[in-house]
Each structure stands twice: as C-alpha cells, then as structure tokens.
Amino acid sequence: MTIINIETLIHIPPTELFALHSDFRKRPLWHDHVIASELLTSEPIGVGSCFHTTNKSGLITLTTREQITVFTPPHRYCYELDSGLFHIYSCQRFTAVSEGTYYQIEVKMQARNWLGEMILPLIASRQRPHFLEAAQEFKRYCEANG
C-alpha cells in the first residue's frame, strides 16, 4: 500500500471549500485533468453518493466510479474507487484556522492483483505530483473566485 499526503492553506472558509470539493460535478471548474463528472445517485450528496468521472492525462482518458463513504460537512469527506489494478481511498479534511482553511488530502493506493503490485511503485511516484498539482489548482481557483 502507498499513502500520499498533501496539505495547504486556503484563504477561504471551510464551508465554501467543502461544498465545492465534495461535489465532483464541479471538478472541471478547477481541475485541468477532469473532463466531466456525473452524479449517479440522487441529491443530496452524502454517504453512498456515486459519481462517474472522466479524467484525461496526456493521451490517456480514464473513467472511474467514485463512492462517498464518509461525509461530515464542512470538515471531512472520503471516497473510494477501484481502477481495476488499484483500490483507492481518498480523504479530504477542511480545518478552520484564523487565515481560512487548512486543507489536507490523504490518498491510500492498494494493488488489487499481481500486475498492480508490480506497477504500484511507478504509479505512486507519478501520482504524488498529480495530487499536489490538483491541490494547487483547487487553491488557485478558490482564492481567485472566492
């Protein structure tokens, strides 16, 4: 298993950040790699909500299905997805501080089969910069549009 942790300070209140980040349909607004995301379950968004998200990185387009497993607005939400080779569990935390919000991401990647075990180190080394870039894009978007 590989664990990736990212954290940053965003000068926007947690309630606004949580509402924007936990609705995957809004990700194309701030994340360059997300083409589209569709809510597969009914509103409101919460535990059990599922999204179908299409990402593009270079020549590769990948569609995944994410399911929210923890939902405690405006502080924390977690979701899981299976990519075939990997099971991914991601938790987002939003902590109020005097300057705005301390935003933390924790991503756990676990191989699902022998091929996943073989390529997990390579994939993980490429995913940390991806998650860091996504956090920076989210921060820039929020602070420019907040």
Task: Please tell me about this protein's structure.
The N and C termini lie far apart (36 Å). A hairpin with a 3-residue loop joins β5 and β6 (86-97). Helices cover 31% and strands 46% of the residues. It is globular and about 45 Å long. It has one domain (2-145): Alpha-D-Glucose-1,6-Bisphosphate, Chain A, domain 4. The chain is α+β, with helices and mostly antiparallel strands and 146 residues long.
What's the structural domain tally?
1
Q: Order of strands across the biggest sheet?
A: 1-7-6-5-4-3-2
Q: List low-pLDDT spans.
A: none
What is the β-strand count?
A: 7
The radius of gyration over CA amounts to: 15 Å
At the fourth CATH level, what is the homologous superfamily?
A: START domain
Shape: globular
The top level CATH class name: Alpha Beta
Structural class: alpha+beta
Short summary:
With 146 residues, the protein is of the alpha+beta class. It is 31% helix and 46% strand.
